[in-house]
Specification:
The complex is a heterodimer.
Chain A: E1 5-10, H1 15-26, E2 29-34, H2 42-49, E3 52-55, H3 61-75, E4 79-83, H4 86-98, E5 103-113, E6 116-123, E7 128-135, E8 138-142, E9 159-162, E10 171-177, E11 190-194, H5 205-214, E12 217-220, H6 222-227, E13 248-252, H7 258-261, E14 269-274, E15 287-290, H8 293-307
Parallel strand pairs in A: 1-2, 1-4, 2-3, 3-9, 4-8, 5-8, 11-12, 11-13, 13-14, 14-15
Antiparallel strand pairs in A: 5-6, 6-7
Helix pairs in contact in A: 3-4, 5-8
Chain B: E1 3-7, E2 10-12, E3 32-34, H1 36-52, E4 56-61, H2 67-83, E5 88-92, H3 102-115, E6 120-126, H4 137-145, E7 148-159, E8 162-168, E9 172-179, E10 182-186, H5 198-204, E11 209-212, E12 226-232, E13 240-241, H6 247-260
Parallel strand pairs in B: 1-4, 1-6, 4-5, 5-11, 6-10, 7-10
Antiparallel strand pairs in B: 2-3, 7-8, 8-9
The chains are: A alpha/beta, B alpha/beta.
The complex binds flavin-adenine dinucleotide.
């Protein structure tokens, strides 16, 4: 007997091989829906996925929700899955309501067992991990890049079917690309993280000088990127930003909120510089320096230069 | 303008995670507090009420029981919203629907709106809560009510019966327009919530908090998701504070330690 029918929603082209590999491991019978930037690659993937690939050329969550509901109905899918982009959180929460289905987001694992699916996900701002059981029909959003597929799928030719969603209630009137700072934190071996302990954008040059000396890159907490906009958002680390795993993370003027620290759990060594000895970050760091960053960083930079023979 | 509703969750406080001897999360020992981004939603709702008029109502559905042990935290969360300018509040606290899930919460909010005879033109919520971080209740609610839904708004206005918002997405910002009635979820960047003043807190004590049970409501879906297990993630860090007579000494010690760890090469 074939497994549970699953509708897999690809938003970015990278989602196809990830979702396909999960589907074969989980033993579900997949059909795909490609939206947003994945729509342009649907043809390429239809040739490799050996399954039906529906395409809706839209980035509007209302239209995506319509398309998902349409395909789920046509295909009698008991499971809808995708990755946790903001537009899919939006679209699939609407779909989940329409199906009266439970939904799990930010899943790292999911297995189908009988007529339910067992999901693992972070909980309490990722201070904990929960295993939860959702009866089918259910909706799952995996963490983006939740797995590294071993290669491209080669499951033979599939079929492409195009959908034309009706006009949504919510209409886009303007789009603005976000600036990018050209950092690649996922690859960095050393990251200097900056937080609200810095008093001005100007002062960040201390952190940049340290990072440069160490051959590292600069990352930041949410308020530095999102609120103050001192750095572009590709520097933002945490539960709603990047997850990084450098050898060394030096957190400067960062309090250690669970939402930030969940992004640096993969670091081998964490150093914290904070003037408040009661700051929660010291409990989550390997080495702590209780000092004013404005006094300590110049000294650290000077010492490093001396010992590197650069003084 | 019709009413404005704002959703407030008394969330498990992730900064006070408690662990049972077997390594599982001791949920009952973790206090609840208002979810951070709900503060932004309340702030924005008060601002819009001042501009548009109408009654501003907070609704809170208790997810984590037992009710008796949680009422104090739940009231504190709701009172903060009242102090900041919300006119009245409805809370649903019932052990038959705890621990709740998002199916339950969205259906219960809809049921409260119907039972209280509210006609909201606008419903505001935070983009996510601090305990579960799923971002799904506002979207579910919009779908159940047949409202427009605008998620992840970091700027919001209501003009001529339309919501105009800047949606904050991974790679771009998108300005959208949607007709009222609408559900809007806001991000932390939309405003800087001000803590209520003492006077506001005192005045809030006189504002009504109406407490309901599942049996008072129609169409509340019992929770479907079952939590099988919750483990505390162990933070295995050394937690060494480097001390020294001078900052020079501290810096030298730090550099030595990082070389020893093999994470720094000079
Ligand atoms: C749903 C949700 C998602 C979130 N996602 C993220 C996320 O992805 N990433 C993220 O970072 N945050 C996130 N946040 C926000 C998070 O809760 C914190 O508000 C944020 O991480 C705090 O940033 P910070 O440490 O820079 O600032 P603060 O908490 O204000 O800390 C500043 C620190 O600097 C210290 N300091 C001040 N002056 C000095 C000085 N002169 N020298 C040395 N130290 C000094 C202070 O003692 C303090 O500890 C999220 C929040 C929510 C609710």
């Amino acid at each position: 007997m074939a497994g549970v029918k699953a509708l897999l929603v690809a938003y970015d082209p990278k989602d196809f091989p990830e979702l396909a590999e999960w589907a074969s491991e989980a033993g579900v019978q997949p059909v795909y829906l490609a939206v947003h930037e994945a729509a342009a690659k649907a043809g390429d993937y239809a040739a490799k996925l050996g399954a039906r690939v529906y395409v809706a050329e839209t980035s509007n969550p209302g239209s995506i929700a319509w398309a998902v509901e349409e395909v789920a109905r046509r295909e009698q899918a008991a499971l809808v899955a995708g990755e946790a982009y903001r537009n899919l959180r939006d679209a699939l929460s609407r779909v989940a309501a329409a199906l009266e289905a439970p939904m799990a987001t930010d899943a790292t694992k999911a297995e189908v067992e009988g007529d339910s699916v067992i999901v693992e996900r972070g909980f309490l701002s990722e201070r904990a991990v929960a295993r939860i059981q959702l009866p089918l029909p259910a909706v799952i959003l995996f963490l983006t890049r939740f797995r590294r597929p071993s290669g491209e799928p080669s499951l033979g030719q599939g079929e492409i079917l195009r959908l034309e969603p009706p006009e949504p209630r919510e209409k886009r009137v303007e789009v603005r690309e976000k600036p990018k700072g050209g950092v690649n934190l996922e690859e960095a071996e050393i990251i200097v993280g900056v937080g609200r302990g810095f008093k001005s954008k100007e002062d960040l040059k201390l952190a940049f000088e340290l990072a440069e000396l160490l051959g590292g890159q600069v990352g930041c907490t949410r308020p530095i990127a999102a609120d103050l906009k001192w750095l572009s958002e590709d520097h933002w680390i945490g539960i709603s930003g990047k997850r990084v795993s450098p050898k060394l993370y030096i957190a400067i003027g960062i309090s250690g909120s669970p939402q930030h620290m969940s992004g640096v759990q993969g670091a081998k060594v964490i150093v914290a510089v904070n003037k408040d000895k009661a700051a929660p970050i010291f409990k989550q760091a390997d080495y702590g320096v209780v000092a004013d960053l404005y006094q300590f960083l110049p000294v650290l930079i000077k010492k490093l230069k001396e010992r590197m023979g650069k003084a | 303008m019709g009413d404005i509703v704002v959703l407030v969750k008394a969330s498990l406080n992730p900064e006070l995670v408690r662990q049972a001897p077997d390594g599982s999360v001791d949920v009952r020992a973790i206090p609840l507090k208002i979810s951070d981004i709900d503060r932004n939603a309340v702030e924005e709702a008060v601002k819009l009420k001042q501009k548009l008029g109408g009654k501003l109502v907070a609704i809170s559905i208790l997810t984590w029981g037992p009710v008796q042990a949680r009422m104090k935290d739940l009231r504190l969360a709701v009172q903060e919203a009242l102090a900041k300018g919300v006119d009245e509040a409805y809370v649903v606290a019932d052990d038959s629907i705890t621990p709740g899930d998002q199916v339950t919460t969205a259906s219960a909010v809809k049921a409260v709106i119907e039972r209280a005879g509210l006609k909201p033109d606008l419903i505001l919520a935070g983009e996510a809560t601090i305990d579960e971080t799923t971002s799904q209740v506002p979207g579910r609610l919009a779908r159940l009510l047949g409202y427009s839904y605008v998620s992840f708004a970091r700027k919001l206005d209501v003009v001529d019966g339309k919501v105009i918002a800047e949606r904050d997405l991974e790679d771009y910002i998108e300005v959208v327009e949607a007709p009222l009635p609408a559900v809007v979820s806001v991000t932390q960047e939309i405003n800087e919530p001000r803590p209520p003043t003492l006077l506001q807190i005192r005045r809030a004590a006189r504002k009504p908090i109406r407490q309901l049970k599942a049996g008072d409501l129609e169409g509340v879906t019992p929770p479907k998701r079952k939590i099988l297990e919750m483990r505390v993630l162990q933070v295995k860090r050394k937690q060494v504070i480097i001390e020294g007579a001078s900052l020079e000494e501290v810096a030298d010690k730090l550099i030595d330690l990082l070389i020893q760890e093999g994470v720094l090469k000079l």
